[in-house]
Amino acid sequence: MPEKSATYLTVTGHRASTAESSRTRWLEMAIQQHQSALIAYAMTIVNDFTTAQDVVQDTFLRLCGQPQNRVENHLRAWLFKVCRNRALDHLRREKDTDTLQHTQWKKIAGHGLQPDESAQHNERLAAMMNILRSLPENQREVIILKFQQGLSYREISEITGLKSGNIGFLIHSGLKHLRDLLPADQS
Amino acid sequence: MKLTPQDPRLTAYHLGELDAEEARQVQAAIEADPALQSAIEDLNSTTQKIRSSLEFPDRSLSPKRVQELLNQAQARSLKTSAPRAITHRLAIAACLAAIVAVLVYFWKTSSSDAEGTPTTTMIPVEKKVPAVLMPAPSPLDPNHADGRHSESIVTLPDGRNLPELRTRLPWLAAEASVIQLPISAGRASLPWIQQAVRLERRWPHAAEVRLEEILNTFALQFPAVVAMARIEKPAWHPDQRPVAATQRAAMLSAEMIACPWRPSSVLLFTKLTASPNAACEVALAYHPNTTGIQHIYLLGYDLPMAQNAMTLPTHVPAGGGVVLALEIQRTTPDPNLGQLVWSANGEQAPSITLQYLLDKEPSKDARFAAVVCAFSIWLRQPTHEAIDADLVLAMAREVSELNMPPERADYLLLVQQTIVGTLPAR
Q1: In chain B, is it the N or the C terminus that has fewer CB atoms within a 10 Å radius of its CB?
Q2: pLDDT tens digits for B159-186?
Q3: Are A6 and B51 a contacting pair at CB < 8 A?
Q4: Rounded CA Rg of chain B
Q5: What is the dihedral of CA B9, B14, B18, B19, to 10 degrees?
Q6: Which CATH architecture has domain B160-233+243-420?
Q7: From B193, which residue of chain A is nearest by alpha-carbon distance?
């Protein structure tokens, strides 16, 4: 095929073969498509925008080292799984004296939100995070993955290692609990 | 199915996590029970509150971080591909040496035959362009009129030296009851366009743009309607007794979609494929329904200026074939667009009746093929009455998706680079 030996400039100005260019483009598309969701997810764990960016950059860096055909069929779940592990690693390094379960969620309530966020949004997110703190950590995690990120039970299972049936039960009972805690006028 | 409002299946149903059969049963149970309906309303309200509270603003990595990532990716890619690149270069050098040796041999032979008068015409070649592996010229070249494609390593000649082409005129349906269709196409055009846009930063010359060649670069499937031509299996018995069995000789498939640039038209895509085991002789014709159709355009297959008609080849090599695109301009909404009639090795094959169903979802391949057609037509005719840059970009955006084959993604990138890139004014 002609494409294999053709060389040309990529959008970022590099001279590359088609295979290299196609891989770079794939990476660009992955970044474009998932960066926002991953930053939001990392924020719920590390609660700091710059750290969340570090975590997400590290996640994409790991994607660079993966063969495309090994991850492209479950890219979203793979990215969230790596992002979660990188974020938890960061917390471990930061607070190595605390237990993981303690550090994992202790900063989740909205302290590190950016100044350019609307006050109303901050307030609402902080209130929700406070409510979520009343749930066990695995339940909190599946609820964030389901309702913030819109992931399926199968993807959540791949990320957290929990079984689909268990995820269904955690979400069901979590919703029941949250229904009683959420203020009536919040919608 | 018996359900209570506390059943986790109700939540799973609400979140779309049940399979179709279970979802149907839960749906039936909900319709029959007001308590379940109220539970679903509760769930709906709770999940809406959670979703809206957890909504996050659009955040991006800084451009510097993205650039760092892409540089890292590039570095890793070069590191891993270096040994392969060296092998490739050695292989290309060896092939070039072999080709030069063969050319020198033939040149010497023909020179001596013609009493010292060289008969070879040298094609002017741009020395700076990279060597690429290219198929032979399209079947318009009389030397390759049988549709066979040989592959050789050549450098891309300057597109300005290609023969001028003129756009093929449409058939008037009232006058053309049988339209013979080509069964072969080259693959040469796309590298020319890539070279023009990406390396030379210029608009491709009209003669470099051959729609049918670009379309046939991609592996496209149109399985909406399929017909198969079967032929007798060759006798294997020593006394040549017939084996009373048949084998597939060729397959013809077709799909029709609404024409994105002319609402009254239908785009017909056909794909002819010969069996991978044996070549065959194929004749393919379109018999339009003459009452509801005005014009029929065969997209691509433009003719050289000096040529009035194209001799159609009939030979399809084993595994070979062609994808064709026709624009059918209708005057009435009659779904009957006529028939594709064809034969393989002289045997009549089952014809395909073309029924255009308006509500049928077009396949991804057909939508991609439509982008290829629109972009090629626009490149050839920038002042086309119905296709402009905005339409081509919109069509490209519509078919773009994350996990598309790399060659298609690369093509869409080429469309984008051509239209919104840094090419000089046309």
Answers
A1: C
A2: 677 777 777 788 888 888 899 998 888 8
A3: no
A4: 28
A5: 140
A6: Sandwich (2.60)
A7: A8
